[in-house]
Amino acid sequence: MNPLEFIGPALANVFTLYNIGIIFIGLFIGVIVGCTPGLNVTMGVILMLPLTFGMESAASAIILLMAVYCGGVYGGSISAILLNMPGTVASIATTFDGYPLAKKGQAKKALNTALFGSVFGGIYSSIILLIFATVIAQFVGGFASPEYFALGVMGIMLVAGVSGNSLAKSVIGALIGVFIATIGFDMVANVQRFTFGSTTLRFGIDMVPTMIALIALTQILLKATEFTITKGHMGNVTEIGEHGLSRKEAKSIVPACIRSSTIASLVGAAPGIGGCVTQFLCYNEARRASKKPEEFGKGSLEGLAAAEASSNSVAGASLIPLLTLGIPGDGVTALLLGAFVLHGMQPGPAMFANHGVTAYSIMIGKLVTAFMLIIIGLLFTRLVARIVKVRYSYLTPVIVMFCFAGAFAATGHIKEVTIAAGMLILSYILNVLKISAIPLMLGMILTPIMERNFITGMLAHGNDITIFVRRPVALGILILTVVLTWSLLRVNRKVMAMQEAAARENTDKSTSSPTEAEG
To answer: Is 234 left (phi over 0), alpha (psi -120 to 50) or beta?
Structure first.
């Protein structure tokens, strides 16, 4: 198979008025869906899927859905920055620095940084996809259950990087997430676990209503409380501002973007790991490598850029296992797999031989989508972001409606609305106890990956638990996990020490001021 014989026809296929138009439309729809609290990228792709049936080619259909995907990932950063409500799971880490920047009156700079990181990550991963798709897929394709279990362990240990001032509370949160993830049917014995006879819990707790309750609805509750206490004078972001990202600042975040895009492109090519896990990995690595780790969580441009670059890099990297192995890399690419089948094609090892032009059209279309995101971001971000200027008493009912509609749309069952309400109560209790919801979500996301691959690995190797350290790659991942965890704990201690020193300095200044005034 010679790639050069497919690239020419693929370029001619992509650069038509029709396909450029659907990329533009897909990106715009994706941004709207992604930035609307209660909606998500998966819902946007599902809603657009029926519209692809009448399209002229399978390539055009997949390109449209990919544009919705990429636009939705960026759109999630808008609500994350302006409302502290991530529009997608993969935008959670964006809130760490995006919202503090917006609260400081630097919303435009935060949005520009998110756009820069998103475009950088999208272009980077698209080039990786075009050049190294087969090589990376062969490497990741050699992974077995022990390697995927080791990656899950690495992900769960990232709780050390998001633990804040209390590692113990973060561990408690992660363990609560592990427990919640085990509710429902056991994947091996097919028996119910922790359902307590409830039909609502029989099939487990879905991630979508949980995310909506833990993040969006909780923020609404806290904002409503703040609105009541301050009698409408809230410290919310109401203006975008005029000062964007300067050229000097853009240059300073390039290393973080390169590092995050590289990590996300490699990890994102592994099926089932997900954008959320990859974003936390990249965010923590950026924090570890930064010369100013104390700024992370308070409005760091590096942290924001790293989070956004990783999210869009995963969107491109997740196509690698889909196109070359026929294995979806995440939930959205699982829908893309269904779209392929509906259009009469089966992605996999024979994809490039049997449908080479289509495969390269999709990959080139992904690259064009990343470039066109610049236009969409610059033209429409301010328009979409006007949601923050709406009076909160008017905005709250609309957001709540979208939140519960999104929870219901996850499976189409009313039980998801009940679960969202129950999770909201749990989230409020955790907030009172100052236990972050982020480790809980990490535990929920990673537990199925770890459990499935642990059981599969044990069954495939005669219940020999040493298989997880006897395979070189799995052992290497576990060793890297220990090193990263130790490094992140050191960074946390360093940041806490710097914060305590700053607090003491502020206290000394406040106590010395009256004396100086008297003198």
So the answer is: beta
What token pair was written down for 428?
């409020």
What's the rounded mean pLDDT across residues 426-435?
83
Task: Answer positive or negative: Cα dihedral of 455, 461, 466, 472.
Answer: negative
| Domain annotation covers residue 149 | no
Q: Compare 246 and 507 and report the one with higher pLDDT.
A: 246
Q: Quote the CA–CA distance of 495 and 96 in Å, as a whole number.
A: 15
H helix intervals, 142-253: 145-156, 167-181, 207-211, 218-229, 247-252
Residue span of the structural domain in which 319 resides = 1-143+255-412
Residue 43 corresponds to which tokens in the numbers above? 């819902």
User: Which element (helix H / strand E) includes 397?
Assistant: helix 392-409
| Domain-embedded: residue 10 | yes
| Residue 105, domain member (yes or no) | yes
**Is 430 among the domain residues?**
no
Domain count, the chain: 1
pTM for the whole structure: 0.64
The one-letter code for the residue type at 56 is E
DSSP letter assigned to residue 185: E
Residue 190 has pLDDT above 80, yes or no: no
Length in residues, the chain: 519
Q: Which has more confidence, 75 or 4?
A: 75
Give the whole-angstrom CA distance, residue 476 versus residue 470: 10
Tell me the C-alpha to C-alpha distance, in Å, between residue 359 and each of 14, 68, 99, 173, 183: 11, 18, 39, 42, 39
